[in-house]
């Protein structure tokens, strides 16, 4: 009830703000207030399931594809527009001092989440499922996990239930977990399930959380020096560039690879949602299965996801030699070892494999323009004339202020880690492609932050774009 009152108060504040600035907007504001009040009432009083049911629903999401993949395009467009409206409302109803306070202590959200994930609290909530759990029961769960995973138990000081409860109350206040105020029991929800680390959650974002909370967070502390001196803030903070850092820190490197895997785990369905019809058209036109090259594709999880929808297709994953063993193990795990092969390679050198589609996912944004041109020219060198290049990147243009903020954040992340790496505009992608003898054909927005930039090889550079 208290949360409902807060939301209604913020809505009223927004109405007063509008009415004091533009009287002609009163009608709109009244309608908006009525809609928000009705939505909050329905969610809070009528439609909201019990905490136990919410926990069951959250665990069920690990067994099903994200619901947005099954939603019609118009519904997602409405949802994205709604995000933009709510984002702007959130800014309008908060006084500047309150927004400043949130900005000052925003780091605590990341570090608080990381602390809970490191102690595997979210996994304890998942094990409790619809029954929920107390802080004392979570401490017992953590001690049992420590005993079970270590051949020789390491003596540790037990976690203090009172201190853990304070951290969980912080998490509940930020809606990271649910709490029953009457019983004091905590429950998993659709947010915290994302951070579970069990075998049933290959898309866990916990590795990405650790990645950002540790070495990347240190990089942000030197951003001002990086901008002033035109150096990598990550390198200033950690003593090495990002790739040398991971060479010297195998545990961090292993976590980074898991973080990259989590990004790719659910990416193939999103890509197919935007491009499956084109793959099908290729098969109809050429009367044969397609062959995909995933350049810089890691262990090949995206290629495997695409092949699962195209049972006769084949793929080649090209990446550094040290990824080969892990990739081949993954191919066997998903029963695709006869249809995917790993080829060690360097995407700065001409590729030795001819493909129908060359997929580069989140590759170009890691490099400056000179290096990006070298990569694109290397891919272009041996491309058959009928083939297509698919760049999956964050294209900066958007009319949605919510996604504008997220895209700008990702761009800042590139600045922190690499200095001269960046997210690019459509015009900048077009220029890179033109100088590397490609012609950009289409930009296909995917759900959320990413786009497919489709291009074809041409013999000479040109400016045409359909």
From TrEMBL:
Hydrolase keyword on record: no
InterPro entries: COMT-like (IPR016461), COMT_C (IPR001077), SAM-dependent_MTases_sf (IPR029063), WH-like_DNA-bd_sf (IPR036388)
Ribonucleoprotein recorded as keyword: no
Single GO BP term: methylation
Entry GO MF terms: O-methyltransferase activity
PROSITE patterns reported for this sequence: SAM_OMT_II (PS51683)
Domain O-methyltransferase C-terminal stretches: 220-436
Protein keywords: Methyltransferase, S-adenosyl-L-methionine, Transferase
Domain of life according to the entry: Eukaryota
Name the record gives this protein: O-methyltransferase C-terminal domain-containing protein
Organism in which the protein naturally occurs: Capsaspora owczarzaki (strain ATCC 30864)
